[in-house]
Amino acid sequence: MTYKGFKTISSLDVKGKKVLLRVDLNSEIINKKPIISQRIIEHAKTIKELKKRQAKVIIIAHQSRKGKKDFTSLREHSKLLNRLVKVKFVHDIIGKKAEKEITNLKKGEAILLENIRFLKEEYKPTKDNKIINFFKDKIEIYINDAFSICHRNETSIVSLPKIIKEKAIGRVLENELKQIEKIKVDDENTLFILGGNKVEDIILLINKKNILSTGVLALLCLKSKGQKLGLEDKILREEEKFILEIKRNLKNIKVPKDMAININGKREEIDIEKFPVKYEALDIGKETIKFYEEEISKADKIFWKGTAGDCSRKEFCLGTKRLLKAMENSKAFCIVAGGHSGTEVDRYKINKDKLGYVSLSGGSLVHYIAKKRLPGLEALKIR
User: Number of helices (H) and strands (E), helices first, in the chain?
Assistant: First the structure.
């Protein structure tokens, strides 16, 4: 079977074949350990199906990227996966240990290799690098099961499917494609709530007509208006490259009236006028929450990307919780771009049916809505 120009798992004869499965296990890290996410739950179903159909499954995945505080091994992720489906963790990627485990794989078995982003070659997609040379003669089928990574131009996403004879989309990716076809986001009637800490993604939507800013974007918007923040001015130096683009669109963006700052691990709320301060600003304040809740109550359609605060700390997840609750109780059709936001939807038991659609993808969905090319999808198309 095919779907929209892609082969699906249903069309594959996987019995006894070595299948390279690219998934997205990227999860929120709390107390140095990943927490179970909907992505892990859904990818486990694909793994289980391939094992049941007697494939020899080699799983590639990642957690964060170099330089980030949550960039870590997938050992703990494998433990979460094993609650759902039996998978052996291999503390190697393209070395002798990985080669031995792949060679010895039996029908119906699966292994999870170490974080693919530990290798610098992952960031240099070419026709000839160490990752490609390792896998090209070992793998018979390539499956990408993660729409969430399809906007990335990385070796395991765009190069491997080009050199492996047979390729297809997995169940999770197939379902995401079917769901996002239902999304009709237009500028005039959609309220965009944009936050989180990945500004390079949401900057693609900064020209939309009606935006509520949270997270790092809110801080950059305040800086764009000339507000001095204090400690955050130093923290946000790398993100200052986005300020010019933000300035061009400030008339469409609502900014916080107050923020929650971190004073010795405790939440303290202060008005924006009281900045600059020598503390981190980690959430929107209650006055802003109330203002944004009113905007949500008036909306017909809402697109959400990124948490409103630092949800790795309970004290700074109030904005995220309250705004998601407001969306749940509104009349609006709400689209939540996944990742950490999807985790918070589950944590606070938000009724997904009342929202509309909760994607497992974050950046890829933003790129899709911004009508950008997704190289990971291009690499999977039947030519």
Answer: 16, 19
pLDDT digits (tens, 9 = 90+) for 103-150: 999 999 999 999 999 999 999 998 889 999 999 999 999 999 999 999
CATH numeric code, 2-179+374-378: 3.40.50.1260
Residue ranges per domain, the chain?
Answer: 2-179+374-378, 190-350
Element (DSSP H or E) covering residue 334: strand 333-337
Taking the C-alpha atoms of 83, 87, 92 and 93 in order, what is their torsion angle to the nearest 10 degrees? -110
Burial profile 117-132: b = 16 or more Cβ within 10 angstroms, e = fewer? bbbebbeebeeebebb
Q: Residue 330 — pLDDT band, cuts 50, 70, 90?
A: very high
Same fold, 2-179+374-378 and 190-350: yes
Both tokens assigned to 292 = 């944004």
Question: pLDDT: is 53 or 382 the higher one?
Answer: 53
User: Considering only 78-87, 274-283, 336-345, which range has the smallest mean pLDDT?
Assistant: 336-345
Instruction: Report the alpha-carbon distance of residue 364 to residue 14 in Å, rounded.
Output: 28
Angle separating helix axes 318-329 and 340-347, nearest 10 degrees: 70
Q: Which CATH architecture has domain 190-350?
A: 3-Layer(aba) Sandwich (3.40)
> Do 61 and 115 form a contact (C-beta atoms < 8 A)?
yes
DSSP assignment of 40-54 equals HHHHHHHHHHHHHTT
d(CA 362, CA 117): 18
Give ∠ CA 334-339-341 in degrees, rounded to 5: 45
The partner residues of 190 in beta bridges, in order of sequence, read 301
Secondary structure class of 3 (helix, strand, coil): strand
Question: 163 CB contacts (<8 Å, ≥6 apart)?
Answer: 127, 132, 135, 136
Predicted structure pTM score? 0.86
DSSP-assigned beta bridge partners for residue 231: none
Rounded to 5 degrees, what are φ and ψ at 110?
Answer: -140, 140
Distance CA 360, CA 248 (A): 31
